[in-house]
Write a structure and sequence with these properties.
By secondary structure, this protein is α/β, with parallel strands linked by helices. The protein has a single domain, classed as Glycosidases (TIM Barrel). The protein contains 16 helices and 15 strands. The structure holds beta-D-fucopyranose (FCB).
């Protein structure tokens, strides 16, 4: 591969989420979250793992920020835990919860690392889950009140905000397949309402951040759309991939139009409006949901592949990956085109000012060798190829402003517990010792030179 130069202003970062790294699940007044509840329900999480201690980041944040500094990160994407700040979901604010993020943010800023803060990365106060969670519209308003407290308190130091992380996962994995908290399997009608309530939460979040921020700020969200790549570079396959990307399946809330049409056009697709499962909403809510954003963050790990198909009225055919296609330990097929097409179709379809990759990375079997290192060549190759795909976007004139590697460190991978290592830093869960993997050292060079070789 030839050397690829990235712009000077490109934001190189890494990402984590509160529940996956903090631990301290009952400390300093933190309330129980929906994930704490799921973790403590036998049989729900691989190996019976829990997020009770996770990476103990709550106590080790200084050491972790020092490692970020060592790698040379320009920015760090973190999330605030709602149950740490408002333990019961609504009402009383927990000052000690705010204190933790005060300490963390101050540490980041004194090391010249820009914080990108996500207000909701899946840990809902259990008290709200008890009141139907995202099936209840009130949760969107409770979220706005929580957002207000966070923004009032931190917006002197935080100017990059994300309302939500991956709403499609909250909806589909939480309320349909039941793999994620709260672990339910709801009807299509209820699912559409969950989608709407999350979108409303997002819109109210945007309004709240803009209304209460003490400084001029950038507001967006981290989203995971259904990403589709063409089988070949032929115009017919590319057009087919775009059709598949825009395809609406009324029984499948992963379909992009469920999310993007309300967010960017202020309207549900006609087919949703005409269906028997149409959610309850008001025109005023649609206006809130479609408030303009400063950026869209994309979380992407793989892509579905399609080719053109004249025999299918939808115009495309899904091509399965060959059995031997390289995969990560998540069983996700590796396809760097997910980066390029993850932005291209969105940028061509909607008016979006700026993009970031707010998550991309890979889980592999990492081993600490006798030299006390982790030689994760597979992860370096993965990142190199995905960065190259990002470079292609920049070359083609798309406004891609930065890239956050998932993840800064190995952490609690939801229902998979600690079985998946995504970090560029290795976490020894017995001792909480961290080791910079070779990928972290490689990334350090990329950031320093602004070049991918
Ligand atoms: C994303 C989540 C993130 C992490 C990665 C692997 O869906 O946002 O928390 O679990 O997947």
């Amino acid at each position: 591969m030839k050397t690829l130069k990235f712009p000077k202003s490109f934001v190189w970062g890494a990402a984590t989420a509160s529940h996956q790294i903090e631990g301290a699940w009952q400390e300093d007044g933190k309330g129980e979250s929906n994930w704490d509840r799921l973790n403590h329900t036998p049989g729900k999480i691989e190996n019976g793992d829990t997020g009770d201690v996770a990476c103990d980041h709550y106590h080790r944040y200084k050491e972790d920020v020092a490692l970020m500094k060592h790698i040379g990160l320009k920015a760090y994407r973190l999330s605030t835990a709602w149950p740490r700040i408002i333990p019961n979901g609504t009402g009383k604010v927990n000052p000690k919860g705010l204190d933790f993020y005060d300490r963390l943010l101050d540490e980041l800023l004194s090391n010249n690392i820009i914080p990108f803060v996500t207000l909701y990365h899946w840990d809902l106060p259990q008290k709200l889950e008890d009141k139907l969670g995202w099936r209840n519209k009130d949760t969107a308003y409770a979220y706005a009140d929580y957002a207000k407290e966070v923004v009032k308190h931190f917006s002197d130091r935080v100017t990059n905000w994300m309302t939500f992380n991956e709403m499609p996962c909250s909806a589909n994995l939480g309320y349909k397949s039941g793999e994620h908290a709260p672990g339910l399997k709801e009807s299509n009608k209820i699912m559409n309402q969950v989608v709407h309530n999350l979108l409303l939460g997002h819109g109210l979040g945007v309004k709240t951040i803009r209304g209460y921020s003490k400084k001029k700020c950038d507001v967006g969200l981290a989203h995971n759309g259904a990403v589709v790549a063409p089988q070949t570079n032929s115009p017919a396959d590319i057009a087919a991939a775009k059709k598949a990307w825009a395809y609406l399946d009324l029984q499948n809330q992963w379909s992009n139009p469920f999310w993007f049409e309300p967010m960017f056009k202020g309207k549900y697709p006609d087919a949703v409006l005409k269906s028997k499962d149409v959610p309850s909403f008001t025109p005023a809510e649609m206006k809130i949901i479609s408030a303009p954003l400063d950026f869209l963050g994309i979380n992407v790990y793989s892509a579905g592949v399609v080719c053109a198909d004249k025999n299918n009225p939808a115009g495309f055919k899904k091509i399965p990956y060959p059995k031997k296609h390289p995969k990560t330990t998540m069983n996700w097929d590796i396809n760097p085109d997910c980066i390029y097409y993850g932005v291209k179709f969105l940028a061509e379809t909607y008016k979006i000012k700026k993009f970031y990759f707010t998550e991309n990375g890979a889980a592999f079997k990492d081993i600490v060798t006798k030299d006390n290192r982790v030689h994760d060549k597979a992860r370096i190759d993965y990142l190199r190829n995905h960065f190259a795909s990002a470079h292609r976007l920049i070359k083609d004139g798309f406004n891609l402003a930065g890239y956050f590697v998932w993840s800064l460190m190995d952490n609690f991978e939801w229902q998979k517990g600690y079985s998946q290592r995504f970090g560029i830093i290795y976490t020894d869960y017995k001792t909480q010792k961290r080791i910079l993997k070779d990928s972290a050292l490689w990334y350090k060079e990329v950031i320093k030179s602004k070049e991918v070789k």
